[in-house]
């Protein structure tokens, strides 16, 4: 990869998709006080925009899972690096992801949550790369299907670079 970012999804299109997803979540979770769990670090900007659009009572927390490190391929080995301090038992959980690639991270984390006996678990992801899935993944709220390219921007990094870009870009 040369490292030059090219725009794939504009900031305007991101905001329109978030409006749509937030409307769906509001419709499904009114009076349920859902707990949104963002997977760090890539989801932090998405989460900030999403909760302001949902604009109803909810709770937010974040979790850090082991990720690619400085490489670009999933190892498939996932670890929970920070524990959740919030009670998950009996709660309606929405997992907030930046990218579903192989699906291994999400599958591992949903399994981890289900052991804690939540009332429900759903998945919200800004982007999905269906051509890369290694296992079936059910995404309940999805922003964009993206091609098999390495993406950065809008909170998503390449070795800690490019998180600040306002659009979703790809690197060649
Ligand atoms: P999965 O377990 O689904 O393969 O990996 C999901 C995680 O891999 C994402 O949350 C993200 O951290 C990383 N990832 C997958 N594809 C990309 C990509 O195109 N760009 C970046 N920056 N990270 C990616």
Explained architecture:
The structure is a single chain. This protein is of the alpha/beta class and about 170 residues long. The protein has one domain: Rossmann fold (3-Layer(aba) Sandwich), CATH 3.40.50. Helices cover about 25% and strands about 25% of the residues. It contains 3 helices and 8 strands. Strands 3-2-4-5-6 form a 5-stranded parallel β-sheet, with helices on both faces. A 3-stranded antiparallel β-sheet has the order 1-8-7, with helices on one face. Strand 2, helix 2 and strand 3 form a beta-alpha-beta unit. It is globular. It starts with a strand and ends with a strand. The model has no long low-confidence stretch (mean pLDDT about 95). It binds guanosine-5'-monophosphate (5GP).
- Calculate the mean pLDDT score and round it: 93
Q: Based on the structure given, which CATH architecture is correct? A: 3-Layer(aba) Sandwich
**Quick one: overall form?**
globular
CATH topology: Rossmann fold
In whole angstroms, how far apart are the ends? 5 Å
**Percentage of residues in helical conformation:** 10-25%
Over the alpha carbons, how many angstroms does the gyration radius reach? 15 Å
**What about the largest sheet?**
5 strands, parallel
Number of helices: 3
What is the count of distinct domains?
Answer: 1
The strands making up the biggest β-sheet line up spatially as 3-2-4-5-6
Oligomeric state of the chains in view = single chain
The stretches of 5 or more residues where confidence is low (pLDDT under 50) are none
Tally of strands: 8
Counting helices, strands and paired strands, the structural category is alpha/beta
The helix/strand series, from N terminus to C terminus, equals EHEHEEHEEEE
CATH C-level category: Alpha Beta
Give the ligands present: guanosine-5'-monophosphate
Strand content: 25-35%
């Amino acid at each position: 990869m040369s490292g030059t970012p090219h725009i794939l999804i504009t900031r305007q299109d991101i905001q329109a998709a978030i409006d749509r997803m937030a409307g769906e979540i509001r419709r499904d979770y009114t009076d349920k006080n859902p707990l949104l769990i963002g997977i760090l670090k890539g989801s932090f900007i998405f989460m900030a925009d999403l909760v302001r659009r949902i604009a109803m009572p909810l709770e937010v927390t974040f979790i850090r899972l082991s990720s690619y490190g400085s490489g670009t391929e999933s190892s498939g080995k996932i670890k929970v690096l920070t524990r959740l301090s919030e009670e998950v038992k009996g709660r309606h959980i929405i997992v907030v992801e930046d990218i579903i690639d192989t699906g291994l991270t999400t599958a591992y984390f949903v399994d981890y949550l289900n052991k804690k006996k939540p009332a429900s678990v759903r998945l919200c992801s800004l982007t999905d790369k269906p051509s890369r899935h290694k296992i079936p993944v059910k995404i309940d709220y999805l922003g964009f299907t993206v091609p098999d390219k390495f993406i950065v921007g809008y909170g998503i990094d390449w070795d800690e670079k490019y998180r600040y870009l306002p659009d979703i870009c790809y690197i060649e």
